[in-house]
Fold each of these.
Amino acid sequence: MIFPIFVVMTLLEIYVLVSVGESIGGFSTILLVVITALVGSTLLKQQGWSTMAKAQQAIVNGQTPAFEMMEGVVILISGVLLLTPGFITDGIGLLGLMPFSRVYFIDKILSKNAEKIFQQKNSGFIHTTPSNDKKDNKKKDTIDGEFWED
């Protein structure tokens, strides 16, 4: 499933880069890609530290930093998208770094996966313990003794 997405995104990025290059020129296109990468890396660093501080504050308050961990995952994916040259991936990466859109992405991810998890009907955990008969047999086979060393 991921391979077709990768191919389609690569072709779209090439198309957009060529189109922008024809419109504003090759050097301007490269400069624009570099500028978006620099702005994105600065925003990535700032948002990463902010999320780290929120996670530490949640731990100090005795809470589980689950939401902050999800934010960290979205920030990581956004950073990878910003490292990929192109305007589409840069746009998606920048959206993932903005707090209001990051919350939207996390809500969508959680709602989609929560449906999958809670709709499974054949999942469960079975715990068995040894029967009492086996315990009694082991007790009968035990030999009590003493040992001296000279």
Amino acid sequence: MHKTYLFDQYTPVALYGKIKALFPTEITMLFESVVNSSEGNFSFITIGAKERLNYKDKTTTYTDVKGTTQILSQDPFSFLKTYYQDIDKALYKEKASELGFSFCRWLYWFYWL
């Protein structure tokens, strides 16, 4: 799901701080574009994660969409390679085209503790 807002009252960092305060237990991220185009530049704020991959103390932990957590016997990059091997890439290319930016799915994977 995505929502688009035109909001000029706060800087992206200030708005992100307010959102983070509203959702203190959720994973949140702020991505800011560095390229100015004829359409301007953009900031993306994410709240929550459907899935989660953590790597800490040489241990890889995966939490699926149902909230079930499992410790994996492989490093996170090997897991991601296998995981994305079977994913419907056409669906995400279509979504990226529709939304006008290219990071739709991988966004939540790079949350390292």
